[in-house]
Amino acid sequence: MIKKVVFLCIVFISLLSILNYAKYIEQKEILVAKIDIDMNIPKIELMNIKNTMYKETNKIFYNVSIQIKIRESNIKSNNLDKIKVKIDEEETKNYEINQIEKILNELIYEIKITKLLKNQKIQILIPESTIIDKANNASKEEIINYEVN
Amino acid sequence: MKNKIIIIILIVGIIMISKNSFSKYISITNINVSSKIVQPIITIEEDKILNITEFKNQIYNFKVKNYSEEKINEIEMEYYIEFLSNQSQYIKYKIYKEGEEIKLTRNKTEKFLLNKNNKQEDNYTIEVLLKENSDQEILENIKMKIYYEQKEV
Q1: Each residue of B80-102: pLDDT tens digit?
Q2: CB–CB of B145 and A29 under 8 A?
Q3: Which of the pair, A64 or B74, is modelled with greater confidence?
Q4: Is B132 in contact with A38 (CB distance < 8 Å)?
């Protein structure tokens, strides 16, 4: 008898739960604000210049390594490939540029120029907007001058 | 006595089941007659997204309405708003309904009622408050979600 009553109760409860189920539920996501505040202008600084002397076919040559530091944590565009290197006022493509370190918001690059002669003058022009951050702040023009000796 | 109880329970059961199948029949008929299907109408009118690029407080407005053009909602609905972005030391926001500040609990508002049959328009304002930080940098989005559901009878 009890079993029958329990069975019937279960049937009723399941029927009632089916009846109460339907309900409209919806949601909408809205983007209120995009905050892009960055008051810091990307900075490019000269860190150090090293030169190494070596002999080749009785001639003395120099390899010069110039390290530059970029200070910016939100880089949107990096155009370091657009730098210009001049040797004795003549533009040259005979150089290498490589990233050698990354620490928090700092990137360190090395520019290597080989087979230079004594007293040759190097000029590296890093144009304006070489580094642009996410808030569209652009780096200023930097010029590095160095004489091999 | 036992038999009588069983017969009573069975009669009640048959009535329940017959009610259930009867209501199911009506709902099928309603689906066929499209004009009789009751659907909720909720319109959200949003402002343009705020593009914030400097430390300056900003205002964002939006409306929650229970009508769209000439159609008015026919079901009582409830809704609440939840901010998906957390407040921080540098970014805070306040929400106002008809000019009165609403308290947020765990980034959520209380539930609000959207009436049926009479036009209703709830006007909201969000105030985004920014505080300068030493890094001079904030890169974040402020998002919210509006949840609405049919009010239980």
Answers
A1: 999 998 888 889 999 999 999 99
A2: yes
A3: A64
A4: no
Q: A2-19 and B2-32 helices cross at what angle (nearest 10)?
A: 20
To which H or E segment does residue A67 belong? strand A59-71
Q: What is residue A66's three-state secondary structure?
A: strand
Residue in A15, A27, A28 closest to B16 by CB: A15
Find residue B43's DSSP bridge partners.
Answer: B65
CA angle at residue A61 from A58 to A66, to 5 degrees? 165
* Chain B partners within 8 Å of A15 (Cβ): 16-17, 20
Closest-CA distance, A11 to chain B, in angstroms, reads 9
* The token pair that represents A36 in the structure block: 């892009």
Instruction: Give the mean pLDDT of B53-69.
Output: 92
Alpha-carbon gap, residue B132 to B121, rounded angstroms: 36
In angstroms, rounded to a whole number, what is the distance separating the alpha carbons of residues B10 and A3? Answer: 14
Residue of B nearest to A23 (CA): B150
Structure tokens belonging to residue A135:
């808030």
Q: Is the pLDDT of residue B29 over 60?
A: no
Q: Give all domains of chain A, ordered by start, each with its CATH number.
A: 43-147 (2.60.40.10)
Two tokens, residue A77: 């565009």
In this structure, the strands spanning A142-147 and B50-52 are: unpaired
Whole-angstrom Cα distance, residue B74 to residue B118?
Answer: 9
Query: Of the candidates A52, A12, A55, which has an alpha carbon nearest to the alpha carbon of residue B9?
Result: A12
How high is the pLDDT of residue A129? 95
Taking residues B59-66, what's their average pLDDT? 96
